[in-house]
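Appendix C: a fully annotated inverse folding record. The material below is reproduced so that readers can follow the format used throughout the book. The structure is listed first as tokens, followed by the designed sequence.
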């Protein structure tokens, strides 16, 4: 999931000059739309050059702060004069076809824009605060090529097992992790790999983030009565081979999904759990009967995103091998000092020491032993221990520590996401 490098330190410096010139034209009193429109374009272009996934416009008593989310972390970008806030918010609402007169209630919208010779969908969310509306823009690059599974950071062994799962014609494959862990990216990469003219692939998502050729995609619409459960029932009458459900949230959706898997469909979906074995417990907690889970679920992939060490400021250092093994996982047999890496911080990585992100993964293959444990309502810990012995389960943390040894990421990053 490593981002493509766009923009150089010189470009960034030149861009600050452009900001300064634009700021000179901004009045200190109430503003019209033209300067606000120009400033919005400038901010969005800079966010794209910085590889930002989100732009936050945050009003306070005297100013309007702008922050970018880059590789999962928020960075302060610039501070604008408070008078631009209303005009800037109105400009965004007009583009997103939202109600510009409504400032007391949260609103959602979206618009499409072409910047830097690329097409983007911008998702808009507004939220009222005591100093005015907070606005967050999610940036979705519609012209970038979809990731391939090989690009996401899988180890060779996990990737091979995962590809074998997808070749099956029926069953449920779950991708789990917290919000922002890359689950949707993995599912899109998976769909991209199996997409072909001889398969009918249908998705129901919340929302649809990327358009995929040959795939029928729909978005839930509660106002029209379309949720995951009702949409899934309709999808089953569309003669699908493969179904992707954005998220399993309730008993009704999970039971329909499992019945679909048992009647000859391959079903892909996500759950919010900490690791792969915990997905089984979550389904039981939702109310799904264990026999349905053991009969339909064929694999669970848990994942997290770790930041990659910046290649421009990467430096090595020596550690005692005990430091790695004392972390609770036996990942090295070396008795000699180990060479690890970290980033010192430079202009290209905003002094963070990181550039781009990679996944760490944990794949639970549901074999006969695991099926028996599920039917017996075994605890998550027992399922985890048996999976390590019989299904080759490599815990998330171990996969992360292996990437530390390879110089891809740092101990601090693995500790942050897979403690």
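Designed amino acids, in order:
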């Amino acid at each position: 999931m490593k981002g493509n490098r766009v923009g150089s330190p010189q470009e960034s410096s030149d861009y600050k000059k452009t900001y300064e010139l634009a700021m000179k034209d901004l009045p200190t009193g109430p503003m019209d739309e033209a300067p606000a429109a120009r400033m919005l374009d400038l901010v969005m272009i800079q966010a794209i050059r910085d590889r930002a996934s989100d732009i936050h416009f945050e009003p306070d008593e005297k100013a309007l702060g702008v922050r970018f989310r880059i590789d999962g972390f928020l960075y302060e970008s610039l501070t604008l004069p408070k008078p631009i806030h209303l005009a800037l918010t109105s400009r965004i609402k007009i583009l997103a076809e939202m109600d510009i007169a409504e400032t007391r209630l949260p609103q959602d919208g979206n618009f499409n824009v072409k910047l830097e010779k690329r097409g983007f969908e911008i998702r808009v969310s507004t939220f009222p605060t005591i100093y005015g509306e907070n606005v967050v823009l999610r940036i979705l690059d519609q012209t970038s090529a979809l990731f391939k599974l090989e690009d996401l950071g899988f180890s060779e062994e996990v990737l091979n097992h995962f590809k074998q799962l997808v070749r099956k014609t029926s069953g449920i494959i779950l991708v789990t992790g917290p919000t922002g862990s890359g689950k949707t990216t993995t599912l899109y990469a998976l769909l991209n790999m199996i997409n072909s003219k001889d398969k009918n692939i249908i998705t129901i998502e919340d929302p649809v983030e990327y358009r995929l050729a040959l795939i029928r995609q729909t978005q839930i619409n509660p106002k029209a009565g379309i949720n995951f459960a009702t949409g899934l029932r309709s999808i089953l009458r569309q003669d699908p081979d493969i179904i992707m459900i954005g998220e399993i949230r309730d008993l009704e959706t999970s039971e329909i999904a499992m019945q679909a898997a048992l009647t000859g469909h391959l079903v892909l979906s996500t759950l919010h759990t900490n690791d792969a074995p915990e997905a089984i417990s979550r389904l039981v907690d939702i109310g799904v009967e264990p026999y349905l889970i053991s009969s339909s679920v064929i694999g669970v992939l848990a994942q997290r995103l770790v930041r990659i060490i910046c290649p421009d400021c990467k430096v090595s250092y020596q550690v005692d091998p005990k430091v790695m093994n004392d972390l609770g996982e036996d990942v090295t047999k070396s008795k000699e000092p180990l060479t690890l890496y970290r980033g010192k911080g430079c202009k290209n990585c905003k002094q963070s020491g990181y550039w781009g992100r990679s996944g760490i993964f944990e794949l639970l293959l549901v074999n006969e032993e695991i099926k028996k444990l599920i039917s017996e309502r075994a605890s998550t810990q027992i399922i985890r221990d048996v999976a390590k012995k019989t299904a080759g389960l490599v815990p998330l943390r171990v996969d992360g520590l292996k990437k530390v040894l390879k110089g891809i990421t740092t101990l601090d990053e693995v500790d942050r996401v897979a403690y």
